[in-house]
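Convert to structure. Protein one:
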Amino acid sequence: MNTIVKTAALLIAALSSTGCYKATFVAEPEAAKREPTHEEWNHHYVFGTVGEAEIDAQRYCSGEVAAVRTGGNAGTTTLGIVTLGIYTPRKVYVTCSDSPRLTARSEVK
């Protein structure tokens, strides 16, 4: 019984020392209310400290990019726990604007 209590306490301490990370970049405030246009996984390792990803959000939108958000979900969290933090993926969510993309020609009037 004593071993079970110690193991449970250690597990609770380990899980409570982990945190969540989320970053959001918004060009249009109303974009936060819409569903993302595109979702993509980024691969990181060793509790997210190893690995980096560069995302070109423009390639997913025919118009302007309204918002970009990075974070996790149940799937990425589960993978991080199952692999004991060795593999810790993140998700990138891109929301496109309803307005068309400006071109050099349309900007000059």
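Protein two, convert as well:
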Amino acid sequence: MKKPYTLKDLVSLLKGKRANDAESATLTADEIVGMIAALEKSLEDLNGQGTEEAAAKAQEVLTQLSELKSQLEGMKAGLNDDASNTDGNSNDDVATLKEQNAQLQAKVTELEAENSSLKEELERLKNAQSTETTLNDAKSRFPKVNLKDAKSERDIHAAVLVQRGVFNDSAVKNMTDEALRSAYVALQVSTKPRSDIGKHLFNDAKPEEPRNYTKQFGGK
């Protein structure tokens, strides 16, 4: 247990030194509270003596009490300021984190929109490529079918199936894309693609002139 402060201890502490060691140190709040209590006790004792010397010491004690109380109030105000600053810093940190989170969320939304746009573009390119492949196949297998107005795979399938007499317009309109594709594939399998190679070979080959064996062997 720490021993009570004596008047000599109080004087040493007021000069910025601890009574129990030789190192300079700033008074703590607990030390100041203890000193105030000790000085108030000393003031009561001095007031009870009724001498001039006691009155002079009492005045000195009052001055020291005033200084200590002012110092203690200053410490309390500093602690309150630190707490306010800490709260302010915490609020600033929270606001900063919220702002950063909002920025990240906006970036995520932007990337999601960009990704969706890229997927749509990829799907469009795939459909265009598939449509072109189907159109070329239909032209090769069904050259007499009018595909001028066909803009999609469904249009191509429908045009071929209707013009080849597999279905009528009414039936085609009520069929799903998958049903049309299946019907087209069935017709596709039974129809060989048109090839002009044989025609070219046939036209390029000149027929040989019939040989006149009678004339060749001296006849008329």
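The helical segments are 7-14, 29-49, 52-141, 153-163, 169-173, 177-189, 197-204, 213-216. The longest helix spans residues 52-141.
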